[in-house]
């Protein structure tokens, strides 16, 4: 028997396998490493002493763009729109509203951007976890086509915003390589790349195993695909610049101001915060992976999942050129996939993935990521890590971002680990929805709320088991790919 996780039903189920229990144990105990000899890297990578865990537990991005509290200012008594959350989505929405002359304030329980907006990998993928066939089965063919097409629009919006507003965030349109786990996955990915090129005009193509080393200095995968409409940016710089533009446009942003309750008050809302009470005509919630008890309806529908990142110390230019010859963004086809990239200066490797821990900051998830890095790049066996940190991403049962309305409040949230593209776009669409701008508010992600999760009130007790089930599926897939 093997285990898998069905996001729609949020429960573990068993799938019959022809493998015997003994073979399954063997598969699960096998450590997969890259094929081929390990080149001599003496002098290229600094030695790392045990334990191989970084000492710096704050985001690498904060060195160039630390999150900061804003100067204290009194809360207004009344607003046209109050936004809960001052990350990418909240600021994008607030910017659009302020430029239309609305009185609007964004409240953040932490420093603006201190959550996922300054902790992510900075990859502009806009990926959607369910594949096209799954979305079509659940929501219909029309919805599936619209969601696929909107990813292109959302990326183009982001890139145009960066250019038009002169956003200094180290953005580079490098392209993305996605590694395939086995020949069957490669064949499926190659067909998908061909369809992307035909349907949406995206430069996308397959990379056979024989040509893989032109894109990534590893033999771990069995070929892959490239999309040239994806790049990388410095996420903390992007947030800082977005905050600068929003403030200059008239958005009032209040840091370290927690919302404790939101209640209907006639035709308006009474919002109680740690700094006082605000009367608002409209409320927009953009809390995503940091949703708390102030919005219980949303809290029962979003699961905060830790995403952890490690960063190497500076590597030699020769080694970086060998491991990442095109300086592309890199992802893969596992259930619990890793994502990785060169830092904007091209001197380090940033490597991220899911973290099964729920409390504290234990060493095990860091070591798990480091093992994944070395499996792909054996040359980094002795590389030191300079930084490690985690942040929350928000998952829901169907794994799609969302705009929806409930009891008069509008929600823009649930970015499922792809908020660099989706949060600014969906925040903008939500702002136009509040203003009644029908055409500009149109998005395929404006539909019913995500389904609630039974027996869940904000404590994701089930996530370690789900992540372990995904890991087992990945081990089976890797074993089968190398039989």
UniProtKB/TrEMBL annotation:
Taking every annotated instance into account, which residue ranges of this chain make up the domain FAD dependent oxidoreductase? 80-432
User: InterPro entries given for it?
Assistant: FAD-dep_OxRdtase (IPR006076), FAD/NAD-bd_sf (IPR036188)
Record flagged with keyword Oxidoreductase: yes
The keyword Oxidoreductase is assigned to this record: yes
- Pfam families, sorted: DAO
Which keywords appear in this protein's UniProt record, sorted alphabetically?
Oxidoreductase
Name-wise, this protein is Oxidoreductase
What organism is listed for this UniProt entry?
A: Labrys miyagiensis
């Amino acid at each position: 028997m093997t285990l898998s996780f069905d996001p729609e039903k949020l429960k573990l189920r068993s799938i019959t396998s022809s493998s015997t229990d003994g073979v399954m144990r063997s598969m699960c105990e096998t450590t997969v490493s890259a094929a081929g000899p390990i080149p001599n890297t003496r002098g290229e990578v600094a030695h790392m002493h045990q334990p191989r865990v970084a000492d710096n537990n704050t985001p690498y991005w904060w060195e160039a763009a630390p999150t900061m509290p804003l100067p204290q200012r009194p809360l207004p008594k009344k607003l046209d729109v109050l936004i809960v959350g001052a990350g990418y989505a909240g600021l994008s929405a607030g910017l659009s509203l302020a430029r239309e002359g609305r009185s609007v304030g964004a409240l953040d329980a932490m420093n603006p951007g201190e959550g996922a907006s300054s902790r992510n990998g900075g990859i502009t993928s806009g990926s959607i976890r369910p594949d096209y066939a799954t979305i079509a089965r659940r929501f219909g063919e029309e919805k599936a086509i619209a969601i696929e097409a909107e990813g292109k629009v959302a990326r183009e919006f982001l890139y145009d915003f960066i250019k038009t507003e002169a956003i200094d965030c180290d953005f580079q349109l490098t392209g993305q390589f996605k590694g395939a786990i086995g020949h069957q996955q490669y064949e499926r990915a190659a067909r998908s790349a061909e369809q992307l090129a035909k349907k949406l005009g995206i430069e996308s193509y397959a990379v056979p195993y024989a040509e893989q080393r032109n894109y990534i200095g590893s033999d771990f995968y069995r070929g892959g695909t490239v999309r040239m409409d994806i790049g990388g940016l410095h996420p903390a710089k992007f947030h800082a610049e977005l905050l600068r533009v929003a403030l200059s446009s008239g958005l009032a942003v209040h840091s370290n101001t927690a919302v404790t309750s939101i209640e209907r008050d006639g035709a308006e809302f009474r919002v109680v915060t740690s700094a006082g009470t605000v009367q608002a005509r409209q409320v927009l919630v953009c809390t995503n992976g940091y949703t708390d008890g102030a919005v219980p309806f949303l809290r029962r529908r979003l699961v905060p999942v830790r995403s952890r990142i490690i960063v190497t110390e500076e590597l030699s230019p020769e080694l970086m050129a060998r491991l990442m010859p095109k300086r592309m963004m890199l992802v893969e086809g596992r259930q619990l996939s890793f994502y990785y990239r060169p830092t904007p200066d091209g001197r380090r490797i940033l490597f991220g993935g899911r973290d099964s821990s729920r409390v504290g900051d234990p060493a095990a998830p860091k070591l798990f990521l480091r093992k994944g890095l070395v499996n792909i790049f054996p040359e980094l066996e002795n590389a030191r890590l300079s930084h490690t940190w985690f942040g929350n991403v928000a998952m829901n049962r169907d794994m799609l971002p969302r705009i929806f309305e409930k009891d008069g409040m509008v929600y823009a949230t649930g970015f499922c680990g792809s908020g660099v593209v989706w949060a600014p776009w969906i925040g903008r669409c939500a702002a136009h929805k509040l203003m009644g701008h029908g055409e500009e508010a149109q998005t395929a992600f404006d539909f019913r709320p995500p389904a609630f999760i039974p027996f869940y009130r904000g404590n994701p007790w089930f996530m370690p088991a789900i992540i372990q089930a995904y890991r087992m599926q990945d081990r089976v897939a890797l074993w089968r790919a190398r039989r």
